[in-house]
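Curious: why this fold?
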Amino acid sequence: MSPSLRTALSAVLVALSCLLVPFGALAAWAAYGLTDTRGYVAAMAPLASDPAVRDAVADTVGDGVAREAGMNPVFLRDAVRSFTATRAYRTAWDAGNTAAHTAVMKALRDDRADRADGDDSPVTVDLATVTAPLKRQLTADHVPFAERLPVEHTRVALLPSDDLAALRKGYRVLDVAGFWLPLAAVAFGVAGIAVAACRRRAITATALGTALGGAFLGLAVAVGRRLTLADLPDEARRPAAGAVYDALTATLRTASWLLLALGLTVAAATWLTQPGSPVVRRLRGRRASTAPTPPEPTRIRA
């Protein structure tokens, strides 16, 4: 294969690798980050102490209870807001997120889950999974009348049945893309470097493309955050929604910074270690100046 053809083929492979880097990272995050219940609950756990999230919970729960009971919503909001500062609330928060995520993932992973008469049923969560650990925590904290707290099996809808078919298809696509896109990005990059006529130049191009992909990924996360918050009709809920968005995309932002730093570091190291670089010339000059001078040959007198 001629050098020009090897260079063209290397350029195509490296370009494909760099294009797949941000999409592969995004697919892997969605397929393995968002779908892991333990990781999801760990990411959401700090939000139990976030002021914006606590205010949103207090307003939503307080207004809902006041509407059902015909009571003053202001009083109920203050009561719920006080409750959000307790350990029992954090227990209920983690239990609720665990139950909701488990129910959603069960419906997405199993086509036969939650069906009746061949049709999809809405994805629901049993409130007993939240009230049971809440009751145990209140009892452990010696709250009066905590043992009398009823644990009722009430189903709350999370996803309508009409959306399940499309969500299952999307989940299958993400499951496949989350594995193959990062693998393809690595394979194209390695192949592009292997067939290149000048491998040092191919490594530099791959590294710079990886850094550019990381920067694009970080920009996409920032733009997605702005668009997500802009679509919310209630501006009062935007701080809480922003906190949730930031918690869920923390791993994605870290990945974008790692890709950017890794790409720039490899590109800089490749440039600094090339034969004609100032660093290499300086090192060679130091070695030459510190090398021992060979002794002069002794003359034998006749």
The CA atoms of residues 114 and 121 lie 6 Å apart. The longest strand covers residues 155-159.
